[in-house]
Design brief:
The structure holds 2 protein chains of 2 kinds.
Chain A lengths: L1 H22 L2 E2 L6 E2 L5 H6 L2 H33 L3 H12 L6 H12 L4 H8 L15 H25 L3 H9 L4 H12 L1 H16 L3 H6 L7 H12 L2 H29 L1
Antiparallel strand pairs in A: 1-2
Helix pairs in contact in A: 1-13, 3-7, 3-10, 7-10, 8-9, 12-13
Chain B lengths: L13 H17 L3 H19 L6 E7 L8 H8 L3 E7 L3 H10 L6 E5 H9 L19 H6 L4 E13 L10 H7 L7 E3 L3 H11 L9 H14 L3 E4 L4 H7 L4 E5 H10 L3 E4 L5 E10 L6 H12 L1 H11 L14 H4 L8 H5 L1 E3 L7 H13 L1
Parallel strand pairs in B: 1-2, 1-3, 5-6, 5-7, 9-10
Antiparallel strand pairs in B: 3-9, 4-7, 4-8, 4-9
The chains are: A mainly alpha, B alpha/beta.
Chain lengths: 271, 375
Amino acid sequence: MLPNAAWVGLFFLAPLTLVVVYSLGQVDLLTFDIRFGWTLSNYRRIFDSLYLHTFVRSIVLSLGATLACLLVGFPVAYFISRQPPRWQRVLLVFVIVPFWASFIVRIYAVVNLLGNNGPIDRITGSLGVSGAGGHLNFLYSPGAVAVGLVYSYVPTMVLPIYVALERIEPSLLDAAADLGASARRVFWRVTLPLSRPGVIVGCIIVGIPALGEYVVPSILGGGKTLMLGNVISDQFLTVGDTPFGSAIAVTLMAAMSLLLLARRTRPLEAS
Amino acid sequence: MSSPSYPDDPSFDAGEESLSRRDLVARGARLGLALPAAAGLAGAIGAAPALAKKKPLKGTAVLINYGGWMGKGEVEKFEALHPGVKIKQVPSTGGLANLQRIRANPGAYDFWFADAPQAARAQLAGVVAKLDWSKIPNAKYIDKPFRRSYPWGIPTDIGKTGIAYRKDIVKEEITSWADLWDLAPKYKGQIIFYDIASTMIGSALKFLGYSGNSRDPEELKQARRKLIQIKPYLQTITNTGVGKALANGSAAIATAYDGEVVLAKQKNPNVAWVVPSEGIMAYIEGWIPVKGSDHLDIVQEFLNYHCAPKVYANFVNTVYAAYCESAASRYIKPEISKSSIIGFNQKVLKKTEWEQFKGKATPLWDRIWDEFKSA
């Protein structure tokens, strides 16, 4: 127990405590001296319309990306789970392969794909679909950010859903069929409910990092779509207001924790 | 090696220095100031062995620097001239992050690459050492306006932000910020702005006829309105790939540094660069010493070496930046020194305002920029 506690304390609680302590301080932006006056002024600043607006935008984009990843990822996971074990392993490798490349490199690859004169632009151009200047002009738009988020996070949605689907006892599906359920009914009444834990885990694993995402909006959004992750990184790296950046980070973590806790209470109520 | 001589670089010849001392002493003797001349002569004779016996430099000076922002072979040559001395370069992580690294690791760094606002801020934070300019005689080759604008250390280069555009795509002539704003709707989705608050807010202020470093809240609000006005027509707000986008035509107009445009023009001669009639913002950057450094002597020696015109010219020829020493012009590649974009141009410099530290107005500038990015 003690080694586990020490590990969690050192690598989780200690850094988290540091961030919380910094969030209660104030910085002199001329000299970068930080005073720990235990003030809540940084948290009050978050309710400024500028940052609330960014918060809402981040939540909307994150929810949209999570839903899109689910719509794309579930069929992929279902297909893989229905294959013979040998083919499942091969297909899972294809799902995991993108992680072998650097995240930034993958996003820049998307820039080339979506950019004007890129392959997608040329295909749509040849089909007569184009905008101003004869180009799709899709890159550097909120749509491109959404595509980037989905592209980045679909594999992390596929894997937990696949695990949940793969664990479903085939005998349950056979029993449902034996009792007269059609294939569609078996899917909706048996397969889908039993895949719920995987879906929930997938949504959490995608939704949480997507909420704090800042690389994808910076690169694919053309810097025009300010998300909460951008604000946090700006505060730390450009402005130097470490306490305020910490306050935003703590607020984000608190919001996500509340969501997770709300989710956790439901199974307890059901039992 | 006892004296600051760089035999590979005849532009800085130790013999010249010694000759001037002998010359001075000879003049003193000719004037018939026997005692002072004798004293001076004795002093010179005494000084020469003292110079010869000057303690050799030893140690490693650590420089936080942008990758590749050094003359080709410059460090190696300097180290060859000073056995026992090393200049170790570590990558820059950005102005603010560098400052925080330096504060968090006293004694770990000896000098670093910073622009004027960062240097001013660093001085306020108490991390800038005072240079002994008598140990950097080659600083005299840096033109005075740049020395005045960068008093903390040695300025290495400048970057002017003008308007770059593709002459073959944009049929209209652009001569001012007003032209850019007027043409924005027509070239929607083909305009790139830099993601740098001091440059873009500064440019908007110049457009409005104000100082590009204004601290007036009302003027800054007007600048914010101007920026938000053009934002819907922008393709992207970024610091990377601007030159590439202009060269390959994915952007038609961009705010662009002079050095970046020169490289873009090499790929596509249709890229033009103009200094808007309202004026432009420019950064000046260089190397500044860290307070508490144990190797300030090495830092000063290296800075002195760097300022020698031929050495400095090698730096400029390597990095392709607008430069601060007109004395080095004759050694700089003609495509740089004779370039109307990054060559030495007094007329352009008269319309240039240096980006400065905003002091207590810094939070207001940051807020204005966030509001623009969020709009």
